[in-house]
Amino acid sequence: MSTQARVAFSGTAPVDLANDSPPQRVAAAREELRSRDDHEVVREGSPGALVRSKAPAKMRTDNLRAWFGQTQVLKGIELPILEKKVTAIIGPSGCGKSTFIRCLNRMHEVVPGARAAGQVLLESQDIYAPGVDPVRVRRRVGMVFQKPNPFPTMSIRENVLAGLKLNGASTNDPDGLIENALRQVALWDEVKDSLSRSGTSLSGGQQQRLCIARALALAPEVLLMDEPCSALDPIATARVEELIHELRNNYTIVIVTHNMQQAARVANYTGFFYLGELVEFDKTDVIFTRPKERRTEEYVTGRFG
Questions:
Q1: Over the stretch 129-150, which tens digit does the pLDDT of each residue have?
Q2: Predicted confidence (pLDDT) per residue in 154-198, tens digit
């Protein structure tokens, strides 16, 4: 295999999936993901190392390494996160997927004994540089976790505003902010007459959308999602996936998922991690139909993992 490969990435147009059946929804999503070839990345050196891109990178990692105590879990990750696109991170359990995205907003370091080295650039600024405030980083790079976690003692309204309060921020129009955030996650019409109810009174899928609204209330530039559908039923999962399709018009999104079909449905680009290394990163359609690395092919065809 050549040490240099040029791969085309497709852009994505808005997709109206509200009235489509699931098979049509999947087909439409895949068609939109490969509809335009207006981005290009040049890969040089090791198979996973992507060193420059014609598409604008909102974030980029350079030789990112991470440890829990003496155990190294990320080994020199170099990966661009392209602006207003969806990047999926796939790989077997324990390969470093969740650690990687937690490094993107400095949440990894809050674990006792955990540390990271290398660079994580948000636009042109290294978020690990001396003097950078992690709280400010987390306002720009939001996180949605695997299990829906609305604050149980707070109402729906208070949950939406909780991120602002925890970050010491305020707004002159809290009602407008709440409505806007809930509309972005297609939850406003379902809860607008019951904002005083507890956030935990909602269904699992509604709770996860409420948590996404809480993250969006901070107006982040990047949204990280760590297995956001793993605790949801198929119907709620479809709603969240449709939401991701809509949000990518305004946000840069990184999603960790064990569900390869989900990655194929929602992501423009996919990175395959294995044993702390980035094995391959490419256009999603390429990863799932004609991967360049043997380990990638074996994983996506179910031979391991």
A1: 999 999 999 999 999 998 999 9
A2: 999 999 999 888 777 778 899 999 999 999 999 999 999 999 999
**Is the CB of residue 72 less than 8 Å from the CB of residue 110?**
no
Q: Which two tokens stand for residue 20?
A: 């489509």
Token pair 């987390």 is found at 138
Q: What are phi and psi of 20, to 5 degrees?
A: -90, 150
Question: What's the predicted TM-score (pTM) here?
Answer: 0.82
Chain centroid to Cα 83, Å, comes to: 12
Q: Provide the phi-psi class of 173: left if phi over 0, else alpha when psi is between -120 and 50, else beta.
A: beta
Q: What angle is formed at CA 221 by the lines to CA 125 and CA 246, rounded to 5 degrees?
A: 150
Question: What are the chain's domains?
Answer: 4-128+136-148+215-298 (3.40.50.300)
Task: Return d(Cα 144, Cα 223) in angstroms, integer.
Answer: 8
Cα three-residue angle 94-267-142, rounded to 5 degrees:
70
- CA dist., res. 260 & res. 263, Å (int): 5
Among all chains, which residue has been given the structure tokens 């390869």? 260
